[in-house]
Design goal:
- The protein has about 100 residues and is mostly helical.
- The chain is built from 6 helices and no strands.
- The protein has a single domain, classed as Serine Threonine Protein Phosphatase 5, Tetratricopeptide repeat, CATH 1.25.40.
- The longest helix has 13 residues.
- The chain is globular and about 35 Å long.
């Protein structure tokens, strides 16, 4: 149900990072990482304001062993919020970046 609703919403607002993130997270939970990456890729060219969504994308890249791309994405963005910096540190530690 959540996947279906998110897909319908994304059709209505195709460049909405929040909707894309919801759908991608549902797909990740189902083990459909390639599809989730495609969803993220479709909105990452836009200015994604949410650090959480951006870091969800980076984490997926790391899970998919796309470490060089994940490192580039991390280097491309400045994280100011304390919770975002903490999550970056967690990812760096977890994935030995």
């Amino acid at each position: 149900a959540a996947e279906e609703h998110a897909r319908q919403a994304l059709k209505l607002v195709p460049k909405a990072p929040e909707i894309a993130d919801t759908l991608a997270q549902v797909l990740i939970d189902k083990g459909e990482t390639e599809d989730a990456k495609a969803i993220y890729d479709s909105v990452m060219s836009e200015q994604v304001r949410s650090d959480e969504i951006y870091l969800n994308y980076v984490e997926l890249l790391l899970k998919m062993d796309l470490t060089p791309l994940a490192k580039r994405r991390l280097a491309d963005r400045i994280f100011d919020a304390a919770d975002s910096k903490a999550r970056v540190a967690e990812l760096e530690q977890q994935y030995n970046l």
